[in-house]
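fyi for ur records
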Amino acid sequence: MAEGDLRLGIDVGGTNTDAVVLDQADAILAKAKVPTTPDVTSGIAAVIEAVLEQATVDRAEITRAMLGTTHATNAILERRGLRRVAVLRLGAPATLAIRPLFGWPEDLRRAVSSGEAVVQGGIEFDGRELSPFDTDGVARFLASVEGRAQAVAITSVFAPVSAEHELAAEELVRKELGDIPVSLSHQVGSVGLLERENATVLNAALIDVARDVAGAVDDAFAGQGLSPITFFAQNDGTLMAMDYARRYPVLTIGSGAANSIRGAAYLTKRSDALVVDVGGTSTDIGVLVNGFPRESSLGVDIGGVRTNFRMPDLVTMALGGGTVVRSLDGQARVGPESVGHRLREVALVFGGRTATLTDSAVASGRAALGDRQTTGPAGDLLLAGLELADAMLADGVDRVKTSREDRPLIAVGGGSILVPEELPGVSEVHRPEHFDVANAIGAAIALVSGEVDRIFHLGPGGRQAVVEEASDEAIERAVGAGADPAAVEIVEVEEIPLAYLTQPAVRIRLKAAGPLAWERAAEGGG
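which gave:
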C-alpha cells in the first residue's frame, strides 16, 4: 500500500448510515453519522460528504472504500429489483416429494420464479451418482424458460461432496441460453438440500441489486471527487472484491452485524467476548470468537425463506434508542415500534412528544442528551420501560452464551447508552471510544476470506490429506475474493466425523483469511 493511502469504511443500518476514514495505522481520522434514507443510496452519498468535511486530507489519498449495505436484505423484504430465476434441481426421483421453493411466501415466489423443475441427477454422500445426469431433461427445461428467465439457479443433491452435475448443467445453460447469470449451490450454501437451494435462488435473484448498488456507489464517489477501489462487506466479518460481490450478492446479507462485531474487536483489542450492538431500531447480540463473529450452525430465515449459507449467530430484538415506550393497561410497554431516524425530531429530550428508550436513558442518568427536564412528567413510565429493556438485554445475553461462566461484553452502536453497567452473566461491560461507529470501523479494517464447508471421504492420505485439500480450496476462494495470496492464513478449522457410514467420512468447515491484495486490486484485478 502506497504512502498516503487511506480507507473509507461505510455501513448502512436500518436507522443510520455511518462512515469513518482510517489511515495506514488504522487510526480514525474522521467519522460521521447520517439518517439512512428510504432509497439507501442517497444516505450513502450524504455520509460520504459529511465525513469528508471532517477529514482534513487530500481526497486523492482515499484509495480504498469498504461498504456494508442492507440493499440485498431490503430487496428481498420489499420484493423489488429481483430477477426472474429458472430453478433447476438435480435430484429426481429421490427428491420429488418436496418441490423447489417449498415454503416460500407466495408473493416472493411469484416475484422470483420463472419456472421450476426437478430432473435426474445428483450425487450420493459417498461420491457415487444418485442417478444419471439427465442431459435431455435439463435441455427441455431450459427451452421452456427461454425468454422468461433472467438468471438460473442450479442445485444438485450433495453438491458440497461433488459439483460434477452442477457444472455439467451450467455448460448446458451456456449452450442453450447464452450469457445469462448462473448461481451454483456448491458455491453458495452448505450441506442441506432445501436450504442450500433457497440460498442459491436468492443469490440469482439479487444479481441486478448488486450491480445497481455498485453503480450507485461509484456515482456517489465520483460526485465527491473520489475514485477508490471498492469492496463489499460479507456476513462473516470479511470483505470481497466488487466483482465477487456481483456474483454472490447474497453474502452481503447480515454484514452489518458482522461489521459491528469486528469493529468491537478492533476497538477493544479483544478476540473473545460477547458483543451487543444497539441501534436506533434493533439490537443484535453476538459472540466474538478468535476475532471473528461466531457463525450460526442452524438455518437462517431471510424474508420468510429458510437458508443455510453462513450468517453470524445472533439474537436480534426490537430494542433501540428510538424504541417507543408507552403505557398499556397501566403497565409500561417497550416497542416493537420505533421512531427510527426521526429520534431527534420526536423524542421528549429533543422537544418532541414521543417517549422513547433514549428518553429513558436520559431520565435515569445513563446518558446526557438533550433536555432532561422534559422527561419529568413521564419519569415513572420511562424508568419502568428501561427496566424492561434491561431484562430483554439480559435474556438475549443468556441466549447467546454456551456456558454459565460470566463473559466480558462489548457495547457498541449509537444506542448502546441503553446498556447498563451490570448484567447477569456478564463479568464486565466495555464501552470503547468510537463505539457509535464500530460498524463502519469493522468494514474498514476487515480482512478478505474464503470458506469451505464440505463432506470429504478419507482416502489413502487420511485426515491430513483432506484437511490440506480443504485448506487449498479455502485459500483459492479467499484469493478470488481479493486477498493477498502471500498473506492468506487458515484461521478456523472444524471437523465433524460422520458416523454409521460404510466408508470413513468427515465434514470439514474451514476458513482462510488475509489482507487485501492492494497492488492487484489497484491494477483492476481485485
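The mean pLDDT is 89. thats all i got for now
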